[in-house]
Amino acid sequence: MKVMIVGDGGHGKVIQDIISGFHTIEIRTILDDRYSNDFFQDGKMYGPISSFDTWWHPNMKVMIAIKDNQERKRIMHKLGLSTEKYLTIIHPSSIISPTAKIGHGSVVMANAVIQADTVIGNHCIINTGAIVEHDNDVCDYTYISPNAALNGMNLLGEGVHVGASATIIVGKKLGDWSIIGAGATVIEDVPNQCTVFGTPAKITLPNNL
């Protein structure tokens, strides 16, 4: 399988490392706006994101390897590809229940755990060592940071960012584009577009999207 990676920052490097462990997947193109021109190096084509139409072909899969949730969504809409054209990547050291579902364009990183009947949407990031317990519903473009823990039966709206080592207790709703600060403990629902910090987590400010 031939793959194009969109994003060559820190998150993109981790994605490339994971893919390198799969002998059936070959990275052919890496696009990032840090590059102003197209060039060929180490068997791969590099260039700005505006070169997408030049180097993509229908037999390729695409991974948007960008950490920022809003930017990931923006690029997905800009590329205009059908959902099934996006690659889903699951690190072999992760533990995924056979009843869990992982959406297109999402990545599950090393030592992450996703338990029974959890649904992960499209273009999500489940980062290193994150735990997503049973019956969670995680909507598109959500980012679960390293060592964060979601207990069972939570609903995470679109574009939620759960910070490193944060904990969400059972049965909470995190509104669209909410941000959970690193180390926070969420014991109540979080409204749309709000940021919470602390233990227990308190709303600090609305997000400006």
UniProtKB/TrEMBL annotation:
One of its GO terms (molecular function) is transferase activity. Keywords: Transferase. The record marks 135 as: Increases basicity of active site His. The active site is at 134 (proton acceptor). It comes from the Bacteria. Residues 2-79 form the PglD N-terminal domain. CDD domains: LbH_AT_putative. InterPro entries: AcTrfase_PglD-like, Hexapep, PglD_N, Trans_hexapeptide_repeat, Trimer_LpxA-like_sf. NCBIfam families: NeuD_NnaD (TIGR03570). This is Acetyltransferase EpsM.
